[in-house]
Amino acid sequence: DMKTLTIFTPTYNRAYILPNLYQSLCKEPTEDFIWLIIDDGSSDNTQEVVEKWQRENKIEIIYHKQTNGGKMRAHNVATRLCCTPLFFCIDSDDQIIEGTVKKIIETHQGLQDDKFLCGIIAKKLIINRQTSQNLPNLKRSTLHDIYQTGFTGDTSLVFKTSVLREFPFPEIAGEKFVTEGYVYDQIDQKYEFLILNDFLMRCEYQEDGYTTNAASLYLKYPKGWALFYAQYYRFYAKSLRDKIKYMGHYISMCMFAKIPLFKMFNDSPSVIISLISIPAGLKFYKRFKSNASTK
C-alpha cells in the first residue's frame, strides 16, 4: 500500500539532536508516512543511531548516506528516492507537532485535484524567537506574495513531489549551498500554495545551523548566490532602484566567486544595468568582506 507523505531530513553530524525529531515522529497517530533521512557524510554515530531505530520498527525509515555535498544535493537525492505523492522537509533540529501528518493527508485530495497548487504552506514555531504571526487570510498564495503582505514568520512547506522533481537544485562544482529561495522563486512563477494557518513543526535554531551562519554562507558559496540574485532580478526587480540593488548583489557575488568580467556581464540579466550597478556591486562587496572578517 503506497503511503502519502515522505518526511525528508537532511542531516550532518546531528546524532545528538535527531532523537528529538524521532520521538516526535513516533507520537504521530497515523503511520501514513515514511521518514527519509539523507546523511550528508556525517562522521559521528548517526548511522548506528538510525539503524537502532530501524530495528525498533516503530515508524518506516529509509536511510541513505552520501559523501558530503550540502543540503541541495541531499534534497535532489531525496526527491529522486521519494516514492510518495507528498514531500515535507523537516530539518534535524526540528520536531513535528502532533497531528501534523493527519492534517497534511486531509488536504491531499484537494491538492491532487488542482494542478495549479504545488503544496501547502503553514506556520513553523520558533521556540527561541518571539515572532508568531498568522499567515495572511487567503485561501492560496505564492510564497513570495505571502512575504510581500508583511508576514515575517517562518513557514512549513509541504510539496507535491512531482513539483520538486520539476525544479531540482543546481549542483555547483566546489560549492555546497544554494538558498532554497532559488528553487522556491521558480515554483512561484508557475504554482500557488494552499494556506493552512496552523503550526506543523517547531524548532530551536542551533548554533551550527545554516540560519545562524548566514553571513559566512555568502563568502563560502558565492556562485550559488550569484545565480539566486540574477534570477531574483529577472523575476522581481521592477523599479530602477531595485534593479541596481539586486544587480549590485549579483556583481558582488561574482567578484567573490572570481568570475571573469566578460562571463559576469554575459551571464547577467542585463548588460546595461550591470554596467551602471558596478558602484553598488563594489559597495556590497566591501560590506560583505568587512562583515565576514568581524565574524
Task: Tell me about this structure.
The protein is an alpha/beta fold and 295 residues long. It contains 13 helices and nine strands. It has helices at residues 18-26, 46-56, 71-81, 100-112, 143-148, 161-166, 180-188, 214-220, 222-236, 240-256, 261-267, 271-276, 278-294, and strands at residues 5-11, 33-39, 60-65, 86-89, 94-96, 117-126, 140-141, 154-160, 192-203. Strands 1, 2, 3, 4, 5, 6, 7, 8 and 9 form a nine-stranded mixed sheet that branches. Strand 1, helix 1 and strand 2 form a beta-alpha-beta unit. The protein is globular, with a radius of gyration of 20 Å. The protein starts with a strand and ends with a helix.
In short:
45% of the residues lie in helices and 20% in strands. With 295 residues, it is an alpha/beta fold.
What's the helix and strand layout?
Layout: E1 5-11, H1 18-26, E2 33-39, H2 46-56, E3 60-65, H3 71-81, E4 86-89, E5 94-96, H4 100-112, E6 117-126, E7 140-141, H5 143-148, E8 154-160, H6 161-166, H7 180-188, E9 192-203, H8 214-220, H9 222-236, H10 240-256, H11 261-267, H12 271-276, H13 278-294
Helix pairs in contact: 8-13, 9-10, 10-13
